[in-house]
Design a protein that fits this description.
The chain is of the alpha/beta class. Helix content is about 35%, strand content about 20%. The chain has a 7-stranded parallel sheet, with helices on both faces.
Length: about 180
């Protein structure tokens, strides 16, 4: 078996990407502190053709060398906005018709494997700070909370791993609908 070369992958150009249909998802980063995590989420969001990213609070914004180390150019393909607080982002996305969903371990959370996103809905998926998770203030304004099932000894996944798992799940479920 031979690995494909980059020019054999037939990826969209940035202009083509901007025009293509997108997954009806906005990724919200609630005070994410690591620029490598931010860059990786840009790259993952590009890979699943997410509509946009909301950067909130202490979350750093492009252009920045440390974000680009892991974004590898996805900061130019992905639409993004900065909000002073995550609650501002949630309020704006709600006015745009997004269903607000925290990715968090919480009372009455729904397990990701049983959650069924609807093709006629738009979703704002909130990923929280690496230490504190989704802020308590934002948790008071969500429509639902999704938890990723875990079976080991650790309390959580890295934010980038969580984003990859959840975005793949939404991508696969919405494209089967």
């Amino acid at each position: 078996m031979r690995k494909l070369k980059l020019d054999e992958l037939n990826r969209a150009t940035v202009d083509e990407f901007k025009e293509q249909d997108k997954l009806p998802v906005a990724v919200v980063l609630d005070n994410v502190r690591s620029m490598h995590n931010i860059g990786s989420i840009f790259r993952t969001s590009d890979g699943f053709a997410v509509q946009k990213i909301a950067l909130c609070g202490i979350t750093a914004c492009p252009p920045h060398r440390e974000i680009e180390k892991t974004a590898l150019g996805a900061t130019t393909s992905m639409d993004w906005e900065y909000y002073k607080t995550p609650l501002e982002a949630v309020e704006q996305l709600r006015t745009e018709g997004y269903k607000i969903i925290a990715i968090e371990q919480a009372e009455k959370s729904l397990m990701l494997d049983t959650y069924a996103p609807q093709s006629n809905e738009k979703y704002a998926l909130i990923f929280g700070n690496e230490v504190n998770g989704v802020s308590d203030e934002v948790m008071q304004h969500i429509d639902a909370c999704i938890e990723i099932p875990q079976f080991g000894t650790k309390h959580s996944f890295n934010i980038v791993v969580s984003a990859g798992i959840v975005l793949w799940d939404f991508f696969s479920k919405l494209n089967k609908a």
